[in-house]
């Protein structure tokens, strides 16, 4: 998605091998799954009946965290992108990633052009018995659309429904178990997340905000906030291309005239342009909140990560509006 040779400061790439590794993966058969240190399996106080364990590979840990919690004792989940310093856009898969995909029974990729390397892994390792979930297809967003669907509360709940339905289809003997996991996750585990979203929307809907990149857009929409930053600037920063002088001038004016109440930026992609905007916003007394592209800190759950960020946004909105 991003062009080479730009000055964009994305997180450091992890691993090497790239397409060569992908090509080698097509020949993989009968390989063991990833080591237990790479595998996150959600604990559960309840046991199902079949004793079956579904092997799951998620391209990114935000979806992997949800998949693990929904599957409980009956899934073994590996997230390929599980390091805050890895860039999901430009990640180069390893032979170990290929072995994991080759033996997976269920895969979850984001799609929408966000993780094209994951599509290559899947095509290099076709498996008729494997179930593949592509989030972009599920939520109806085509390539070229905003790929950051894990920041859309509505899309998150769609994915929860789909993963649960797929688990039940793959392991019908434990359907009741998976339904219980889903109910617990949505009504208890995600309760703070759901409440923050509802509270912010009820209290601050329509509040004008600015942002550093398009990762914030689905969240702003879910919270009912009014995004004033030009979409072309948001997309440029997300894709690693240079924003236009006109867009930067527009944002400078929005900040200097305090047309935005809060500025939200991705701290994993703080380019010089973004750093300048953060500095200018703070100088004008505009509260600044941060988000990240992947789970932080390493090992955090989806809900802990999102709740912490939502609390930061809620605090910034309160400071800005006095409410």
Describe this structure in words.
The chain is 46% helix and 12% strand. The protein has 13 helices and nine strands. It has helices spanning 18-25, 61-71, 95-103, 116-124, 135-139, 153-170, 175-189, 191-204, 217-223, 231-239, 245-256, 272-283, 302-321, and strands at residues 39-40, 54-60, 75-81, 106-109, 131-134, 208-211, 226-227, 262-266, 288-291. Helix 1 packs parallel to helix 4.
Topology:
Blueprint: H1 18-25, E1 39-40, E2 54-60, H2 61-71, E3 75-81, H3 95-103, E4 106-109, H4 116-124, E5 131-134, H5 135-139, H6 153-170, H7 175-189, H8 191-204, E6 208-211, H9 217-223, E7 226-227, H10 231-239, H11 245-256, E8 262-266, H12 272-283, E9 288-291, H13 302-321
Parallel strand pairs: 2-3, 2-4, 4-5, 6-7, 6-8, 8-9
Antiparallel strand pairs: 1-3
Helix pairs in contact: 1-3, 1-4, 2-6, 6-7, 8-13, 11-12
From N to C, what is the helix and strand string?
A: HEEHEHEHEHHHHEHEHHEHEH
The rough form would be described as: globular
Radius of gyration: 20 Å
- Give average pLDDT, whole number: 87
Secondary-structure content class: alpha/beta
Main sheet record:
5 strands, mixed
Helix content: 40-55%
Poorly predicted segments: 1-47
The total strand number stands at 9
Number of helices: 13
| Separation, N- and C-terminal Cα atoms | 40 Å
Approximately what portion of the residues adopt beta-strand conformation? Answer: 5-15%
Taking strands numbered 1, 2, ... along the chain, how are they ordered across the largest sheet?
1-3-2-4-5
Short structural description:
The chain is 46% helix and 12% strand.
């Amino acid at each position: 998605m991003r062009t080479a040779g730009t000055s964009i400061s994305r997180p450091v790439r992890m691993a090497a091998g790239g397409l060569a590794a992908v090509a080698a993966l097509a020949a993989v058969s009968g390989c063991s799954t990833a080591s237990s240190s790479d595998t996150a399996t959600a604990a559960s106080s309840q046991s199902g009946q079949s004793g079956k364990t579904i092997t799951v590979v998620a391209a990114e840990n935000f979806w992997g965290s949800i998949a693990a919690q929904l599957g409980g004792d009956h899934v073994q989940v590996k997230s390929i992108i599980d390091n805050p310093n890895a860039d999901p856009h430009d990640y180069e898969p390893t032979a170990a990633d290929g072995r994991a995909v080759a033996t997976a029974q269920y895969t979850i990729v984001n799609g929408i052009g966000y993780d094209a390397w994951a599509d290559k892994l899947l095509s290099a390792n076709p498996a008729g018995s494997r179930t593949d979930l592509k989030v972009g297809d599920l939520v109806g967003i085509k390539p070229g659309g905003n790929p950051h669907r894990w920041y859309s509360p509505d899309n998150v709940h769609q994915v929860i429904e789909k993963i649960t339905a797929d688990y039940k289809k793959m392991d019908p003997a434990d359907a009741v178990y998976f339904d219980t996991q889903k109910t617990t996750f949505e009504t208890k585990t995600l309760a703070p997340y759901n409440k923050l979203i509802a509270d912010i929307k009820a209290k601050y809907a329509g509040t004008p905000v600015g942002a550093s990149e398009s990762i914030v857009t689905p969240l702003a929409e879910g919270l009912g906030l009014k995004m004033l930053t030009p979409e072309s600037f948001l997309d440029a920063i997300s894709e690693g291309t240079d924003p236009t002088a006109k867009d930067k001038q527009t944002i400078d004016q929005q900040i200097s005239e305090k047309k935005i109440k809060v500025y939200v930026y991705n701290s994993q992609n703080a380019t010089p342009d973004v750093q300048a905007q953060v500095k200018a916003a703070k100088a004008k007394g505009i509260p600044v909140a941060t988000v990240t592209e992947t789970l932080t800190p390493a090992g955090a759950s989806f809900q802990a990560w999102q709740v912490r960020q939502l609390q930061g946004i809620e605090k910034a909105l309160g400071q800005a509006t006095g409410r």
